[in-house]
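During the no-cost extension, the postdoctoral fellow (Dr. R.K.) reprocessed legacy sequence entries with the updated structure-token encoder. One reprocessed record is reproduced below for audit purposes.
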Amino acid sequence: RQDFIDQMQVAGIDTIGGDPAALSTALQEESRRVAVAAKRANLKAE
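Re-encoded structure tokens follow.
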């Protein structure tokens, strides 16, 4: 999670400073991707 935030800051601090909507969209997409990956991992574990 922290490394994703670091990537966002490296990719463009202006995104974080200037456009909260873009940041929240990126965070939502990342959260969705993480949730899907976790679901797949759970399926493999069973």
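Residues 15 and 22 are 7 Å apart (CA to CA). The mean pLDDT is 74. The remaining legacy entries will be reprocessed before the final report is submitted.
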